[in-house]
Amino acid sequence: MGSPGLIAARDKMLAAGVEELAVETFAHYYRLLEHGETGMIPESAIEPVDMPALADVEVDDQSAAEALRGTVVIKLNGGLGTSMGMERAKSLLCVRSGLSFLDIIARQVLHLRKRYEANLPLIMMNSYRTSADTMAALERYDGLAVEGLPLEFLQNKEPKLLAKDLSPVSYPRDPDLEWCPPGHGDLYTALLGTGLLDQLMAAGYQRVFVSNSDNLGAVPDPRVAGWFAASGAPFAIEAVRRTPSDRKGGHFARRKGDGRIVLRETAQTRPEDLESLADLERHRFMSTNNLWFDLAAMKQALDIRGGILGLPLIRNVKTVDPADPSTPEVIQVETAMGAAIEVFDNSALIEVGRDRFVPVKTTNDLMVLRSDVYTIGPDFVLEQGPPDIPFVDLDPEFYKLVGEFDKRFPEGMPSINKATSLTVEGDWTFGPGIKVVGEVELSATSAQRVPASTVLTGEAED
Predict the structure, then answer these.
(1) Residue 281, class by beta-carbon neighbours within 10 Å (0-12 exposed, 13-18 middle, 19+ buried)?
(2) Which contiguous run of DSSP H or E holds residue 95?
(3) Which has the closest alpha carbon to 289: 74, 455, 6, 449?
(4) Cα–Cα separations (whole angstroms), residue 137 to 89, 92, 103
(5) Nearest-angstrom CA–CA distance, 243 and 264
(6) Per-residue pLDDT averaged across 204-216, rounded?
(7) Do 117 and 210 fall within a single domain?
(8) Residue 326 — φ and ψ, nearest 5°?
(9) Judging by beta carbons within 10 Å of its beta carbon (0-12, 13-18, 19+), is residue 199 exposed, middle or buried?
(10) Residues 292 and 416 in one domain
(11) Which of 3, 32, 51, 103 has the most CB atoms less than 10 A away?
């Protein structure tokens, strides 16, 4: 049956109604933890990888449209945006012209359906915390649900484990903090466990496009669908060139032992290999988390492995309450959905433009997205204006939380489409009609206001 810690964790999950396949998947990773598995990928075991670019690929319109008609769109939507002070689905955040992430996603899909005469199901992978708010917000879109298919399925949850003995943590002060998501690698477990994988295949769909709901650049593009269908690959990921701001993030590589593509995350990198991780000349490509996979190939892989793909373990060490470092240290067992690329023979990578990777992880990102750097076309696709995205760095003491951020931009965002960078230190409130040009730094030791219609072109200090 297992060790006392595993038995206790299994009992806790079953008592909470967690699906049995998810419990068995958790048990698989728990045993790896017990045996000292760290999930680390040493630099000596990998080499750089190259790939074709979408810009160089020819896909005719008919093939693109046909591929889109056999595609299902899944959006990962389990996050609450707690790092920005939110307590509901992050995708409900207003980002453009009174529209939320969800509004824009729904309208992108509805537009594509009409243009290409495609069913193009949109299905949200929600968490128990985001489900109600998300489904209520989507009710306004008549006909969004495709007949016979759900608009959502739920990701699983698992107990946080005390680092000292791997027992499930107890935290009566806030029992919700005893649980964590298993990482977005849970996608495959949830698809199989809920029966949705079989349901999609029975409905005649061939492939799935998966992306994060906070990435509005991740449109289910017919051209990418056409490329994937023609490639014959069972699994593919869209990649982008890494920039200096991505030095601390994960990257693609090829494993020397078997030649397979791997995705190495920061948490899987040894301390002595962090310099290599940050080498943008050696490891040039990172994941957009925009994934494509063939439904039949995924079903076969899961069946062969007893429902457990066996993705590499990510051992994430945190505290029970992430906001309180004095609470007990815990281990969260996670997997990354992109790591499935190493499960399949003949997996593929395709380099795409940065316009397909517009994630919003901080209010710095939110400022850029709300600004005139982007416009939204009639197809509800983001269109980037300047060739390079300006670098924005707002003082986290005053701008980290969305509520505080909004207070300091009461008249909307400044124009930054001619900015190289904007660095704000201190408490600044921005009036209407402000323009930022070039490289600008604002610094203050007391609350300040940038007057209306100001053109900022250099440093300004209190």
Answers:
(1) exposed
(2) strand 94-96
(3) 74
(4) 10, 8, 8
(5) 17
(6) 97
(7) yes
(8) -85, -10
(9) middle
(10) no
(11) 103
The residue segments making up the domain with residue 208 are 4-356
**How far apart (Å, rounded) are the C-alpha atoms in residues 385 and 428?**
26
Distance CA 189, CA 24 (A): 10
CA distance 444 to 281: 37
CB-based contacts of 56, cutoff 8 Å, min separation 6 = none
C-alpha count within 13 angstroms, C-beta hemisphere, residue 420: 6
Domain boundary among 316, 335, 356: 356
CATH code of the domain containing 25: 3.90.550.10
Q: Are residues 374 and 231 in the same domain?
A: no
pLDDT band at residue 83 using 50, 70 and 90 as cut-offs: confident
Backbone φ and ψ for 328, nearest 5 degrees, come out as -55, 145
Q: Quick one: 318 and 368 in the same domain? A: no
**DSSP reduced 3-state for 416:** strand
List CB contacts of 139: < 8 A, sequence separation 6 or more. Answer: none
Distance CA 367, CA 387 (A): 17
Confidence of residue 461 (pLDDT cuts 50, 70, 90): very low
Give residues with Cβ within 8 angstroms of 423, minimum separation 6. 391, 392, 393, 440, 441, 442
Query: Looking at 299, 333, 356, which one is the last position of a domain?
Result: 356
Residue 266: both structure tokens together: 């920061």
Q: Are residues 388 and 246 in the same domain?
A: no
Using DSSP, state whether 252 is helix, strand or coil. strand
CA distance 222 to 120: 11
What's the CA gap between 333 and 7, in Å, rounded?
16
Please report, for the domain that includes residue 439, its CATH number: 2.160.10.10
Give dist(CA 452, CA 450) in Å, integer. 7
Beta bridge partners of 375: 383
pLDDT tens digits along 85-109: 888 899 999 998 889 999 999 999 9
Domain count, the chain: 2
pTM for the predicted model, two decimal places: 0.94
Phi, psi of 156 (to 5 degrees): -85, 175
Do 210 and 291 form a contact (C-beta atoms < 8 A)? yes
Q: Are residues 326 and 372 in the same domain?
A: no
Handedness of CA 226, 230, 236, 239 (dihedral sign): negative
